[in-house]
Amino acid sequence: MAGVLELLVQGAVDTFLVFLVLVLAKRLGDWGFRRSLLKSGADDGPEQTVNHQIEECSNLAVALRQSGLGIGFGMGLAGIVSGGVTRFSSGWEAVLADMSTMLEYLAALLVFFFIAQIVAERVVLAHVHNVEQLHARNDAVGFAEFGILVATGLIAYGSFHGEGGGWETSLAFFAMGQVALVAFALIYEWATPFNCLDEIRKGNSAAGLMLGGTLVTLGIVLGFAISGPFTGWAEGIIGFCVSAGIGMVLLIPFQWLIDRAFLPNTTLKIEVERDQNVAACAVTIGTQIALAIMIGALVA
C-alpha cells in the first residue's frame, strides 16, 4: 500500500511539473502568434490572441495548430520520461537531481518546437504566411501545421527515448529528423499530381490534410527508427538514413495504391484539387498511418 501511495504522489508531482511546462509552451506559442500578426501590420487588440480566436471566433485553423502543438509536445514529453523517474524512497537529493535533468530536457524540447515552427513557416510552407492565414481562418494551413507539429513530436519522442547517448545524440537525431521531414515535404510536393502549396494558399483543406497527414506518417517511421538504444554514431546514423530512406520510398507509392484500393471510382487529384473532399483525404491518411505504423515496426 505504501508503494502504491508513493507512486500516486510521485505521479501527481511529475504530472503537475509537465503540466506547467505545457502551459509555458502554450504561452510562448501565443506570444509568437500575436507578435507575428503585429509585425504583419495588424492592429493591436484582443482579436490578435490565440485565446480570442478560439473562444470568441471559433477559429478551427488556430485550434488545429494549438492541438498539434499539444499532441506533439506531449509525445516529446513521453520520450523524456520513458526511461523512468527516481522514486521518493531513493532520497530527496536523487529526486531533485532527476527533476533537474528532466527540466533541462524539457527546455530542450521547447527549443526543438521553436525550431520546428520556424522550419514550418519558412521552408515547408514557404511564402504561405502561416500566422496571417491562420488568423484568416485558412483551415488548410491549420491541417498542415497540425501534421508538422505532431510529426515533430514523434521525432522528439524517438530522440529522447532509449538508453545511452545524451544531449548531443538527442539534438543530432532531432536535427536529422527535421531534415528528413523537410526533404520528404519537398519530394511529396514534387510527386503529387497537384500543386499542394498552391492549394493550401487557396484554403483547400483537403490539400492541407494530405500534406499534414503524410508528414505524420513519416514522423511515425522516423520515431520508430531512432527510438532504440544508442550504440554508436556510425551505426546510429546509418540506421537512421536507411529507415528514413525506406519510409520515403514506400509511403508515396503506397499512397497511390491506397488511392486505387479505397477510392476506386475517382482519383486523389480529383478529390483534392477539384472537389476539395476532406472525407476522401481522411480515408487515405488513416490507411496510410496504419501502414506507417507497420513500416516503423519493421525498421525499428
Give an overview of the whole structure:
- The chain has one domain (2-299).
- The protein has twelve helices and no strands.
- It has helices at 2-39, 50-55, 60-81, 92-124, 130-135, 139-160, 167-191, 196-201, 205-225, 233-262, 268-274, 278-299.
- Helix 4 crosses helix 6, helix 6 (139-160) packs antiparallel against helix 7 (167-191) and helix 7 (167-191) runs parallel beside helix 10.
Supply the number of structural domains.
1
Sheet-strand content, in percent, reads under 5%
Secondary-structure element series? HHHHHHHHHHHH
Portion of residues in helices? over 70%
Assembly context of the chains? single chain
- How many helices? The count is 12
Structural class: mainly alpha
Features:
12 helices, 300 residues, mainly alpha, 79% helix
